[in-house]
């Protein structure tokens, strides 16, 4: 039996390059990419996607929709790393640890939409707590996140590593119109009844994310405290290979969060920081925006799908 053919469409961007890096030495699959002269040839791209077993799309949203529309071979399976299909009901959301059975659903899916980097952290923190009823569905959730500049794609890398890098900003908050494209994804897959306030930022480091969600205990279910929230997350991810919940004693000893702590991995670390005196709790997620937030997640989903190929 021949090895499955995996086609990466768009392997020159930050996500695609890292996916290619993670897969290039694999002997259990045949990796296909297009030469530079063929990348913008619709006919050649259509031929490549219809000849593969699994296509990984690392494209802008419009191009991803176009690529999916070009598929006529019903056997082709897709992992879309763009945001084009993340809230579509006929696509399987590619966050294996999100709910029990999600990894199996991904393994058997024909169409998988990779989560966004920021939503991975927000949903990872909120979905288990919402499902357990510890946070009311209409809680006024706010999410703040700081990503490495690679989160902007090639433009961000060029700004910080190109000729004008000396003038690159050290820190910038953006999305001030409160209409970031990841917000509907967070709301839908975290199970929120209301749209959250999401405020993203970029720092002057290449990759890594720190994402935080503050909570006021007076607005939660009666009797819920930091230990309750922590226990719920710890139970949910107890068997997870890639999501770890820091013990409360580690959180109490922590004085800062390093967004680069898990760079180069497909891991995510969740923490709960309670302040019972003031009735506040801070939830946090640390992960690599190009690892668990993009390329690593795509490879994790690919590995699940290959078990059913």
> What's the name of the CATH homologous superfamily of the largest domain?
Dihydrodipicolinate Reductase, domain 2
Strand content: 15-25%
Question: How many domain regions?
Answer: 2
Give the biggest sheet. Answer: 7 strands, mixed
The coarse silhouette is: globular
Main location: cytoplasm
GO cellular component, one term: cytoplasm
Domain Semialdehyde dehydrogenase NAD-binding: 5-106
Protein name: N-acetyl-gamma-glutamyl-phosphate reductase
Q: What keyword list fits this structure?
A:
oxidoreductase; Dihydrodipicolinate Reductase, domain 2; 2 domains; NADP; NAD(P)-bd_dom_sf; 309 residues; 10 helices; N-acetyl-gamma-glutamyl-phosphate reductase activity; globular; arginine biosynthesis; Rossmann fold; seven-stranded mixed beta sheet; alpha/beta; 13 strands
How would you portray this structure in words?
By secondary structure, the protein is α/β, with parallel strands linked by helices. Helices cover 32% and strands 21% of the residues. Strands 8-9-7-10-13-12-11 form a seven-stranded mixed sheet. A six-stranded parallel sheet has the order 2-1-3-4-6-5, sandwiched between helices. Strand 3, helix 3 and strand 4 form a beta-alpha-beta unit. Helix 1 packs across helix 10, helix 4 crosses helix 10 and helix 5 (117-131) runs parallel beside helix 7. The longest helix has 16 residues, at 291-306. The mean pLDDT is 95.
């Amino acid at each position: 039996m021949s090895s499955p053919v995996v086609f990466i469409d768009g392997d020159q961007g930050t996500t695609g390059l890292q996916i290619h890096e993670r897969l290039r030495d694999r002997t259990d699959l045949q990796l296909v990419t297009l030469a530079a002269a063929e990348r913008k040839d619709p006919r050649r791209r259509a031929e490549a996607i219809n000849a593969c077993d699994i296509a990984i799309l690392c494209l802008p949203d419009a191009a991803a929709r176009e690529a999916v529309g070009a598929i006529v071979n019903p056997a082709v399976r897709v992992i879309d790393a763009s945001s084009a299909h993340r809230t579509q009901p006929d696509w399987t959301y590619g966050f294996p640890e999100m709910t029990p059975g999600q990894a199996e659903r991904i393994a058997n899916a024909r169409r998988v939409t990779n989560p966004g980097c920021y939503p991975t952290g927000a949903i990872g923190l909120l979905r288990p707590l919402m499902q357990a009823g510890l946070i009311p569905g209409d809680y006024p959730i706010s999410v703040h996140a700081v990503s490495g500049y690679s989160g902007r794609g090639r433009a961000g890398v060029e700004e910080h590593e190109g000729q004008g890098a000396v003038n690159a900003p050290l820190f910038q908050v953006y999305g001030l119109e409160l209409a970031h494209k990841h917000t509907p994804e967070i709301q839908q897959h975290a199970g929120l009844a209301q749209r959250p306030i999401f405020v993203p930022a970029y720092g002057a480091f290449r990759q890594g994310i720190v994402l935080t969600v503050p909570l006021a205990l007076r607005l939660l279910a009666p009797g819920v405290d930091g230990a309750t929230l922590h226990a719920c997350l710890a139970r949910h991810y107890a068997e997870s290979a890639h999501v770890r919940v820091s013990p409360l004693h580690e959180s109490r000893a922590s004085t800062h969060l390093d967004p680069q702590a898990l760079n180069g991995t497909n891991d995510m670390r969740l923490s709960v920081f309670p302040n019972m005196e003031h009735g506040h709790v801070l939830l946090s997620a640390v992960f690599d925006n190009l690892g668990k937030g993009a390329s690593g997640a795509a490879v994790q989903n690919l590995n699940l799908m290959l078990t059913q190929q």
